[in-house]
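Memo to structure team: turn this sequence into structure tokens by end of day. - J.P.
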Amino acid sequence: MSRRCFVCGKGPLFGNRVSHSHRKTRKKQAPNLHATHRIVNGRKIKVRLCTKCHKGWLTG
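Reply from structure team:
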């Protein structure tokens, strides 16, 4: 299971860490994922959801 949202497909992003001397190194920013069990097509499966999709699934 990849580190992606099951609903919207949101995944990790890459940016730069910038030091005081302006040297740049790559950093990874991961989405806030929650592993939950949901019923999909009549079967209970474990899915990873980002926070926005998790909240939307609870209310909708």
